[in-house]
Specification:
This protein has 77 residues and is an all-alpha fold. It is built from five helices and no strands.
Length: 77
């Protein structure tokens, strides 16, 4: 599974958020989320900062999101 597919799976199946609601939580528009999920982001340089924000906002393991390694969520310490 590719990173953009993991983002879509996370948003739909685990967070149960629309693209609009997901984008609002991250401070971006629905179209940005749509482009990320289709792997068509016009400015790929923006992606890394959004990935870090997603991980922080939703308590997601960055290694899982980027590479599919480890658990999806960061375990509470």
């Amino acid at each position: 599974m590719e990173m953009h597919e993991r983002i879509k799976e996370l948003r739909k199946n685990y967070l149960h958020l629309s693209q609009e609601a997901f984008g609002k939580r991250l401070g971006v528009s629905r179209s940005v989320i749509n482009n990320i999920e289709r792997n068509c982001l016009a400015r790929p340089d923006q992606k890394l900062s959004l990935i870090k924000l997603m991980c922080k906002e939703f308590n997601i393991n960055e290694e899982w999101l980027l590479h599919g390694v480890g658990p999806m969520y960061i375990e509470a310490e």
